């Protein structure tokens, strides 16, 4: 389709919005290398030096190092548990034609309609009752449950594309159910697994409210997302340190996004639309 | 077969034709449905259980974690409905939804349409639009805090262009606090939603638009009269998503940016649930609002679904 001159307003509007997205981020990145005085005097100027002083202060004063390790730990373990639960479930649901299986699938799909946030307080009670309150472990158990509907539904859709003849042939050769799952289904739906992993990586890493309540403020246990806002209180209004800390928490996501840009967009689009 | 939502043609996995239920049922499938049980149990314990608990706690009089619990029946509902703060929260939530949702969906659709036409630089735009989707809530809140606090970016920019008289303590002023939260929603929502729309529009055949152009339809007309009806149900899904995110997710933004204040000028329903549970420790009250929120979400979803139904 040809885009004529009449698109000029559209171009302008779109790039203005793009500017609104990029300017605050630029301001953030630039401020991370500046002192307060510099930020106020020249908010948009490039930093005069690229010292890592603010990063170090942010890192030390909010224990961001421990927090990053905690976040990584929670994210990785929760991702592993998600796959461990969702893969066999999706496998079973994709192959089965029984009424029970389709009922189960419906239950998972209905999960999209349950907003996680609504159950914050009861979940807190559950954590207290299991003795796992104020631990990272509860989050490792809890996060996969929130990811289950989406993960199962996406994996089922991928697994349904695998021709049944593949399994039948393997069965002829005496393959067990486990072998079928391990050697046929999992290798063939690696793109689906990647989608589920990326999607959940993002939500697990960025999870805030539950981590705040369940893990709590203990610097030994808390995740980056919980540690980050404390910088506001600790540093008063040292924007340099505040922005440096925020930039630090964005780095892992940024690395993943830049390396896997196409894949990530695809994953999020798939995920959001099925959610 | 249940497909909750339509799959975006080009983007998602293509669903094969549903397996014939009769044709192959002769083949016994060993190790069947039982494999789905652990996932289901896990899901029931951590998700369905707590959701049911909301309804139970809403019927309890429970004035604090360590206080004795008694049955309150509908007592909490009366307390909540008599509380002016609750009505402030209802109003704020209604304003938030009424302002943010239409702006977000309309702008995102137009933006998505723009990107899907592949104008020069569309790859860069696509990359940029995605940024808000990657940033965590606390990081987004920090961006807005840095931009809107008294000596932040917005006031600095106003001063530097000689409009110093317009500066304000945006987040701390009763007249602008809620507007800031809405701005945050819109700012981060448009880009991400636009990417979703663009992905869906990519799978609409090109000749559809070309045919319309040959018939003399302008872009505006093609966009709203030709393409929009095609993806109407998808727009419904996206609207539902944004509706849920705004309705339930606003608690985090409010908590991080304004704490509901000043007064109750930026208290939303979902923040009220949080605030009553974890700050005021009035658990019955909190979960009653939770139930109301839940029902509001359900009614909203059904309404949106109806509004976007395909009418052939």
Automatic annotation (TrEMBL), chain A:
> Which spans are transmembrane here?
12-29, 72-95, 107-131, 137-159, 180-202, 239-260
Domain ABC transmembrane type-1: where?
A: 68-260
Record-linked Pfam families? BPD_transp_1 (PF00528)
Which key words tag this protein in UniProt? Answer: Cell membrane, Membrane, Transmembrane, Transmembrane helix, Transport
Q: Where is it mainly found? A: membrane
Q: How does it sit in the membrane?
A: Multi-pass membrane protein
Which PROSITE patterns does the record cross-reference, listed alphabetically? ABC_TM1 (PS50928)
Subcellular location, in the record's words? Answer: Cell membrane
Q: Give the InterPro entries listed for this entry.
A: MetI-like, MetI-like_sf
Family, as annotated:
Belongs to the binding-protein-dependent transport system permease family.
Protein name from the UniProt record? Carbohydrate ABC transporter permease
From TrEMBL, chain B:
Could you tell me which residue ranges the ABC transmembrane type-1 domain spans? 90-304
The reply on keyword Hydrolase is: no
Keyword terms of this UniProt record: Cell membrane, Membrane, Transmembrane, Transmembrane helix, Transport
Q: Where is this region: Disordered?
A: 1-28
Family label: Belongs to the binding-protein-dependent transport system permease family.
The entry's localization annotation reads:
Cell membrane
Name its species. Answer: Streptomyces yatensis
Q: Which domain of life is it from?
A: Bacteria
List the protein's name. Answer: Sugar ABC transporter permease
Give the principal location in a single coarse category: membrane
- Look up and give the membrane topology term: Multi-pass membrane protein
| PROSITE patterns (UniProt xref) | ABC_TM1
Comp. bias intervals (Low complexity): 1-24
Q: Which InterPro entries match?
A: MetI-like, MetI-like_sf, UgpAE/MalFG_permease
Q: Name one Pfam family in it.
A: BPD_transp_1
What stretches pass through the bilayer? 34-62, 94-115, 127-148, 176-199, 234-257, 277-304
């Amino acid at each position: 389709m040809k885009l004529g001159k009449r698109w000029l307003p559209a171009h302008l509007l779109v790039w203005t919005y793009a500017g609104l997205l990029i300017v605050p981020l630029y301001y953030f990145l630039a401020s991370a290398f500046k002192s307060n005085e510099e930020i106020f005097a020249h908010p948009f100027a490039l930093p005069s030096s690229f010292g890592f002083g603010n990063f170090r202060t942010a890192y030390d004063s909010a224990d961001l190092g421990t927090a990053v390790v905690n976040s990584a730990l929670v994210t990785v373990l929760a991702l592993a548990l998600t796959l461990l639960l969702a893969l066999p479930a999706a496998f079973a649901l994709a192959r089965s034609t029984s009424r029970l299986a389709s009922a189960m699938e419906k239950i998972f799909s209905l999960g999209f309609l349950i907003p996680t946030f609504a159950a914050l307080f009861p979940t807190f009670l559950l954590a207290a009752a299991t003795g796992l309150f104020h631990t990272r472990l509860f989050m490792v158990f809890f996060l996969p449950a929130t990811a289950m509907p989406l993960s199962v539904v996406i994996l089922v859709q991928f697994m349904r594309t695998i021709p049944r003849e593949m399994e039948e042939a393997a069965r002829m050769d005496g393959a067990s159910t486990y072998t079928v799952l391990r050697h046929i289904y999992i290798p063939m739906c690696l793109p689906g697994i990647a989608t589920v992993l990326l999607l959940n990586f993002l939500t697990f890493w960025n999870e805030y409210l539950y981590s705040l309540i369940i893990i709590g403020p203990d610097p030994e246990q808390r995740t980056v997302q919980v540690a980050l806002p404390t910088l506001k209180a600790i540093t008063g209004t040292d924007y340099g340190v505040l922005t440096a800390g925020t930039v630090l928490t964005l780095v892992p996501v940024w690395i993943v996004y830049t390396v896997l840009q196409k894949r990530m967009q695809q994953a999020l689009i798939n995920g959001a639309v099925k959610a | 077969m249940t497909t909750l939502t339509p799959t975006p043609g080009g983007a998602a996995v293509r669903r094969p034709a549903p397996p014939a239920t009769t044709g192959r049922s002769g083949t016994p499938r060993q190790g069947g449905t039982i494999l789905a049980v652990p996932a289901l149990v896990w899901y029931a314990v951590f998700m369905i259980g707590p959701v049911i608990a909301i309804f139970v706690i809403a019927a309890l009089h429970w004035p604090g974690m360590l206080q004795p619990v008694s049955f309150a029946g509908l007592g909490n509902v009366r307390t909540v409905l008599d509380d002016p703060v609750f009505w402030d929260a209802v109003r704020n939530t209604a304003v938030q939804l009424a302002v943010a949702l239409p702006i977000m969906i309309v702008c995102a659709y137009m933006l998505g349409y723009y990107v899907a036409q592949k104008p020069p630089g569309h790859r860069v735009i696509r990359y940029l639009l995605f940024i808000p989707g990657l940033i965590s809530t606390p990081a987004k809140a920090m961006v807005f805090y840095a931009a809107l606090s008294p000596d932040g970016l917005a006031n600095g920019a106003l001063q530097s262009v000689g409009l110093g008289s317009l500066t304000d303590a945006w987040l701390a002023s009763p007249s602008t606090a809620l507007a800031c939260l809405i701005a945050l929603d819109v700012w981060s929502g448009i880009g991400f939603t636009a990417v979703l729309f663009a992905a869906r529009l990519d799978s609409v055949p090109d000749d559809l638009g070309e045919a319309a152009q040959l018939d003399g339809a302008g872009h505006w007309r093609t966009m709203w009269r030709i393409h929009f009806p095609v993806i109407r149900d998808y727009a419904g899904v996206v609207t539902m998503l944004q509706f849920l995110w705004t309705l339930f997710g606003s608690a985090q933004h409010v908590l991080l940016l304004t704490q509901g204040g000043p007064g109750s000028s930026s208290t939303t329903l979902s923040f009220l649930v949080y605030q009553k549970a974890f700050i005021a420790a009035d658990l019955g009250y909190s979960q009653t609002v939770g139930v109301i929120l839940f029902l509001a979400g359900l009614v909203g979803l059904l309404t949106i679904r109806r509004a976007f139904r395909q009418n052939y």
